[in-house]
Amino acid sequence: MSDPARDPAPERPVGAGADSTWDAFVEANPRASYLQLSGWASAKAANGWRPWAIEAEAPGGTVGARILLRRPAGLPWTFAYAPRGPLAARWEAASLSAFSEQVRMGAAKVARISHLRVDPEIELDGPDDADGSTRQAFWALGWRPAPEVQPGVTRVIDLGADESALWGALRGKWRQYVNRARAGGIRVEERGAADLAAFHAIMAETSSRTGTPIRTEGSYRQIWDAFAPAGRARLLFALGPDGTPEAALFLVRAGSRVVEPYGGMTRAGATSRANYLLKWEAIRSSREAGGTSYDMWGLVNPGIRQFKEGFGGREIRLIGAFDLDLRPAAARLYRLAERYRGSRRSTAGATAAQPADGAGSE
Questions:
Q1: How far is residue 338's CA from residue 317's CA, in Å, rounded to a whole number?
Q2: CA-to-CA distance for 289 and 282, rounded, in angstroms?
Q3: Looking at residues 143-162, what average pLDDT do you find?
Q4: What is the DSSP string of 260-314?
Q5: Could you give the count of Cα atoms lying within 13 Å of 22 in the half-sphere of its Cβ?
Q6: pTM for this structure?
Q7: Which of these, 43, 34, 79, 2, lies nearest to 219 by C-alpha position?
Q8: Which is nearest to 109 in space by CA: 10, 13, 18, 15?
Q9: HEC assignment per residue over 135-201
């Protein structure tokens, strides 16, 4: 028999037609994120997440999110999460109010949702959070700050400049490393699904060296299958003179925005500086393909921050995540469990090696 907490009915239909309409809305938005595309919900379905669609009309236009639902093991309530949502045609307090009301109404039709977590891609104190206006709107509507799921700090390169300007934005040492890799016979090639095993092998070596977590090969394949058929995913390898992969990047695109959520390199790649050439070629070719921005996705430690700073762009800090409690007691218990799991992970990872020159990222 179906369990309504595990098989929730979406607030609006989720299907091929609805997905394509929503995806068009996402990709037309300045904050287009692949995590809000229907492909991401498809990729996460294999891990037990189910989709929930919430949309509302506000004075400024449509506001909504594709939400993921999952019941954590050992808990009787369902956790709802809108990665990089909600999205609005025009971001303002009225949009957030309409969305919040629709969430509360929709949650009454979906069994046992404890709370919804969102983390919209809004820059802290930026144009859409002037004087903390968006954060204040969240507070006024009953949302509260929550632990982050996605990176809260990132670095974004504006691809509107011409190639020579992008090249000039690299630090001098970084340009030297790119040229050294080329002179050493490193070349960059775009590959496909058949090379996901090689990509995972690089990620596994990176993880063993730096202590950073990775996904299973099957998970990367699910993401590839969700985005590549529509031309939204690219797999780039830096190959040594003998053709051996020394570094790799997995890029995902939403509209004209390109993100590099996954990447790694081998020890040989660190020596040859293959990751420098690979990163530059990813930026250059993304611009060539019509991208307008390149998101380097997270600055998790000083080494990675320094590595990514050398490629130019601007560091952006986001307003963070917020929770809307739909069953307050259940939400509090969930967060207690979350803090406990987080403290255990922090203790376990306290002695993990930290990458230098971006080794853990690229």
A1: 23
A2: 10
A3: 95
A4: EEEEEE-HHHHHHTHHHHHHHHHHHHHHHTT-SEEE-----SHHHHHHHHTT--E
A5: 30
A6: 0.89
A7: 43
A8: 10
A9: HHHHHHCCCEEECCCCCCEEEEEECCCCHHHHHHHCCHHHHHHHHHHHHCCCEEEEECHHHHHHHHH
